[in-house]
Amino acid sequence: MAGFFNKLKGAGTGISKADSNAAPKNKKEEPAPELTPLEKLLQNAGPVREDGSDKFFGLENFGNTCYCNSIVQALYYSEPFRENVVRYPPFTPSDTPDGKPRKVNVSIRAPVQANGAAGGAGKGQKPATSAQAIKQRHAVNGQALPGQPVRPEDRPDSPEYKKKQSMIRGPVLELAQENPDAYGMEECTFTGLKDIFTALIESNTRIGVLSPQRFLDIFKRDNELFRNSQHQDAHEFYGLVLNDVIANVEANAKRMQERDESRNKDGLAQSVHSALGASTALQSKAEPGTRTPGTGWVHDIFEGVLVSETRCLTCETASQRDETFLDLSIDLEEHSSVTSCLQNFSAEEMLCERNKFHCDHCGGLQEAEKRMKIKKLPKVLALHLKRFKYTEDYSRLQKLFHRVVYPYHLRMFNTTDDAADPDRMYELYAVVIHIGGNAYHGHYVSVIKTKDRGWLLFDDEMVEPVDKHFVRNFFGDKPGMACAYVLFYQEVEFDKVREEMDAEGPEEVRLASQKVDVALGTTEQPNGTATVPLSKLNTQPLPPLDEGHDAMPTLGHAQSAPGDIASTVPLPLSPVQPDQSEIHPLVAAPLPDPAAMTAADEAATIPPKSKDDKLRDKKEQKAQEKARKAAEKEQARIAEKQRFEKQAKIREAQKSEQEQLQKALQESKLLAAEDGKKRKKETADSVPEVGSYEKPSGFLNRASRGSKSMTRKSLAFLNKGGDKGDKDKEKEKEKDKASDKSDRSDKGESSSVAASSSAAAAPTEGSLQQNGGSHSPTQPQTQEKGPETAAPDKDKPDKHPLKERFSFGLGKKKSGKFLS
Amino acid sequence: MFVLPPPPRYPTQAAYNAAVGTGQVAPMIETNNILTSPSGPEYQFLVGEGLYVLKEDLHLATPPPHPSEAPIVNPNPLATTPPPATAGTKLSLANLDVRPLPAAFYRVTSPSSGLQQSIQEHPDESKSSSEARESSSEAGRIASSDVLLIVSNAPAFGEGNALLAPPNSKDANKRRKPKNNVTKSNSSFISRVIVHETLNKRLQDRPSDGLFAFANINRAFQWLDLSSPSKAEYLTKILFTKAHCLCHDVNLLTKSSSHIDVIMGFSTGEIIWWEPISQRYTRLNKNGIINGTPVSEIRWIPGSEHLFLAAHMDGSLVVYDKEKEDATFSADEEAGAGLQTNGEVNSDTASKGVSNSSQIQINKSVHSKNQKSNPVAVWKLSNQRINAFAFSPDHRHLAVVSEDGSLRIIDYLKEELLDLFYSYYGGLICVCWSPDGKYVLTGGQDDLISIWCPSESALIARCQGHHSWVTSVAFDPWRCDDKNYRFGSVGEDRRICLWDFSVGMLHRPKAASVHHHQRGGSVSSRLVSLQRAESSQNGYGAGEEAAEKILPHAVEPRSRTAMLPPVLSKTIDEDPLCWIDFTQDAILTSCKSGHLRTWSRPSDTSPQLDEETDSSQV
């Protein structure tokens, strides 16, 4: 409780600072600053550690780059990965005598002026280069925003506000400059990541914001599919980054090997190699396929080995094949656990009908049994929950809101009999969360367990401590559409787990008593229980982001119903509304008069009580309680009245939204079916509506919704008004790219995810719609066929769960290279 | 009586959440329970003994939020506001009639074990325990597999401490009622009490062997008559203002047609002792004066009329006396007092900061001389939340499971930790004893049910069949005999699993047979130990080496543990299940959204005859 309260306080003074004080702010220099929860947590933290385990930086969002931020944070807090990235390569080419890598080229951004929208602004922009991005940022910062209702980032409890404050507070580390040859490697994803990690470690403050611009530039350079500013799949990003890192490190190691060999053939190379990677020797035993010495660690940490055993039912011959994986993509079942989904992953499966197995022994397509087990467990186990399901009939990725529970600790049941350490214990250390209604929109955040600071929530620029139980809010069944999407488990010793539990005891006790406060309603939270219902409604936080909201028609609601900021989001999907409302059962029924309802309830409650006043039992009832109750009743009455009035006002405005929202929740099929139509309208509608966008709504949207995709869109429209020439050119280019993509996926080279993202890309560019959008349904079917399933099978992609399971095996690595 | 409004507009919690999620103030209204009896293949399941069929589904109405309390509308999914503690619907069953016991119960008293006799040499001398037996014969027993009264020649809890003797044992039939009238209460804790208008008539007309049920749902607590044709109409419904009842229990010793002791634990940490027939109640641990954390489990101490045990979420177990006043409790003071007044009692009393893994921290002993007020005893197990506990049928032992995955076996009479086990991984959620007291079952977040044998300090088997966390386990005493055990479990996966477990029939794990490396022999030794456990009949062979035992036990690797598959696994509800119990005629289950389902046993078989034919096919 205290934590939350402080948060508010901190935020509160933050406002006054922002309003009254235009001077640069440096948190550390303020005499008696109100601390943010994170700062409070870090008080008396002692000297900054060398290993970077106590750096808690937000990452700047450049418009839809939350997929990157959430994954980079999760990677950074994987201790073995961070250490190895920082350590590799051990020598700079200049052979610095002390063997230390050169300092990263970090610049600290000039603190922003507080009168504008600060860091929150401009993120919707689509910066072409980093330099331009900075310019744009400053340009937007200057804009004044007259005549607006309360902006979401002005409300101290909103994430937008906190993000903005983080940017204001700084320091903001820029990694925007080219940083060539720092490590004797060409600039690549790995060096970009290494720059980020090193910059964080070398920073002399514990908190701040880092701008990963350069890393993204490099990554986008190498990965064509991400070369736009749309919403991307965080898991896909994770796989590509790891593959890039592996490829980069291996390429470098090979290069060094060759160079060393050519330079001195006196066996010195050997010693260098042994110095390169401690785990090389270890690796050589278990390694499948070829591996360059010195790169053991990249394989070691995330890579596991699966055995797929196929038994031909005709000749009973069993064949085994090893495959490496960087994560496991598991199918979800309604109301299940991660444990159970993992078991299903390894469940026996029949290869029959159109999915027969080509048996080398009997020489032909035969029915076969196949199952996959884990032969080598990775140090860090990444579990990708397949929440985005491609449904044949609706030709798009739908999000599954299945409730899937995940424990804090895990062991794997599906190991082979000869696996080493089959009872290895894993602990959950990071959860990447997707917030949003479908695969094409939304926001990613991560919740990460840090070494000794407990769990932290990383939401782009904002970092906030959360309690352990917060981690359990993302099973998928809670309102708000936030679901765990990628789970990171790391290996751990059981004894350490027990120690930790002992250590976290007092915190647990505190949480337990906090629960009582919550139950009693004695807490004074703005969104808490009974204290001031009116203010509660006013400060009602943002409605969850949902595709349905895209349909909010006008800005008008904002004034009449300040509580509902979402209604200011002007995206032109409204044409679809009418038919949806007819379908939704709950909404179709007229709302009962809440006043009548509550009045009835009160009537039922209060009269008996007043009668009882006479019979009051003196022992039990203290005078205080009476007073409190009276006050409560009074408040309740006021609340009723207010609520009623408010409802009356809001109801009208809300009605259409509700239809939209609930529609999206339960009937999103329809939306899917009409997707194409919608998209067309959207682009058509957008130009005339530019006027209404002109106000800051563009970035207001972004800020308020956390939805990068929408902002991008709206700002894209803005830009269209401004400099059409450039836009058109870019459009042309994207069109080409997208058609490239679909071509390629037709060739069967691209993965299903890739195909889906091209599908995602298509709708926003109206002209591409037929090209990408209509092709996409068939693309995943042609994805990489396993060697054993040669039979062409175009119409039943779901019958190939095998293939879909591996998102990033070695095969994928190849296709990744091809793409780059 | 006012007219109740029509059925709920939000039939499910999900719909309600969706409504709240949209930012709309969900117009929930007061509703009635709904009784349905759906039929069809999805409402029945087939096991070896026959077909279980859904008899009826009683949907308990989720009450609307209190008028003074606008629903918490915070659709920001990242809001760090902790949610208040709540619990899915669980039931406490009470049957006022005496029925023949299933055979499994009798084994506890079976004289075959001389060993057992020798341990429990205590002649039952105390007033309370003799009284206990007397009243037990009168009060009869329930139809659930819960604690039984007949058995124990174990001494009563707190025996020897004269201060704990019941205040007036002169008239055992005239039970003391709580102080306050619940219907006339104007406490801010209780929002509203609705008593059925013909309550007295219904109580008179009902069959004497009918089953009463007490159920929590959201902020409501209902008293139901499951034998009534109009069981959807609750006998009494209490609506609390904000607090949710998380757990409750009926005293099986004191129940009679004129008196039922019900105890409830709340999300606010408070406890209410309620006597439904006179509609009187008493609040204990008021405002968290003794312990300020929510109560996750509460049970009457078997054989005691007025003592009950509550598990608070800070990891402490607290014994309360229903009739004593609260007094502020500080562990330090009590420890000091314990030393001064009663130095010889328990040296542990004073030793603070003991390691949680080797003993329990006794903040107040039941032997303390300071027994004027509550609490009677306070034991701190750890700082981790206790999820459930269960008393052994012999009234000596307590099995406690926690969120950190630990299972503790405690001799609560001696206030000693006997054993400490850990789950395969994840927290443990539920626990129960076999009717003969030989085995303990736990279910948890590893999706497993683990069978433990406390007398052997061993894990017997893990049971794999649920697709999500296991929330409740119970033995079916009507289908248990000397060697074969039937138990059922429900979980978050909405499944019911039934299991047949028979000593000696456990398969050795495949992995172990494949790999004969250093651990090869242990499995067979496990089986041997199983048989030994079997021969030693009941509970603890002896106090044995309990003292020198090195706690806790390491987690058994999979390759050494037998895996038991279920005889049945079936999805039986739309929402995660949270409770299961067996009666003579049915299996009862309940789910988070308040569906209480009654599954009739196969009609053609008589439970007594069935024992021979009931061979478990593992």
UniProtKB/TrEMBL annotation, chain A:
Composition skew (Basic residues), residue ranges: 811-820
Comp. bias intervals (Low complexity): 750-762
Comp. bias (Basic and acidic residues): 151-163, 609-660, 721-749, 785-806
EC number of the protein: 3.4.19.12
Keyword match Protease: yes
Molecular-function annotations in GO: cysteine-type deubiquitinase activity
Hydrolase in keyword set: yes
InterPro entries, per database record: Papain-like_cys_pep_sf (IPR038765), Peptidase_C19 (IPR050164), Peptidase_C19_UCH (IPR001394), UIM_dom (IPR003903), USP (IPR028889), USP_CS (IPR018200)
Region annotated Disordered, chain positions: 1-38, 115-134, 139-169, 523-567, 599-820
Record key words, sorted: Hydrolase, Protease, Thiol protease, Ubl conjugation pathway
GO cellular component, one term: cytosol
GO biological process, one term: protein deubiquitination
Comp. bias regions, Polar residues: 523-540, 766-784
Catalytic function, reaction form: Thiol-dependent hydrolysis of ester, thioester, amide, peptide and isopeptide bonds formed by the C-terminal Gly of ubiquitin (a 76-residue protein attached to proteins as an intracellular targeting signal)
Pfam families with a match to the protein in the record: UCH
Domain (USP): residue spans on this chain: 57-492
Similarity field: Belongs to the peptidase C19 family.
Reported function: Ubiquitin thioesterase component of the regulatory network controlling carbon source utilization through ubiquitination and deubiquitination involving creA, creB, creC, creD and acrB. Deubiquitinates the creA catabolic repressor and the quinate permease qutD. Also plays a role in response to carbon starvation and the control of extracellular proteases activity.
Record's subunit section: Interacts with creA, creC and qutD.
Protein name, UniProt field: Ubiquitin carboxyl-terminal hydrolase
TrEMBL record, chain B:
SMART domains found in the cross-reference section: WD40
Composition-biased stretches (Basic and acidic residues): 121-136
UniProt keyword list: Repeat, WD repeat
Superkingdom classification of source: Eukaryota
One cellular component (GO) term of this entry: nucleus
WD repeat spans: 421-452
Coiled-coil segments on the chain, per record: none
Pfam families found in the cross-reference section: WD40
Region (Disordered): 59-88, 111-140, 160-184, 596-618
Polar residues composition bias: residue spans: 111-120
Acidic residues compositional bias, start-end: 609-618
GO biological process terms held by the UniProt record: carbon catabolite repression of transcription
Assembly and binders: Interacts with creB.
Function: Component of the regulatory network controlling carbon source utilization through ubiquitination and deubiquitination involving creA, creB, creC, creD and acrB. Required to prevent the proteolysis of the CreB deubiquitinating enzyme in the absence of carbon catabolite repression. CreB deubiquitinating enzyme stabilized in a complex with the CreC leads to the expression of genes such as those in the proline and quinate pathways.
Family under the similarity heading: Belongs to the WD repeat creC family.
Name this protein carries in UniProt: WD40-repeat-containing domain protein
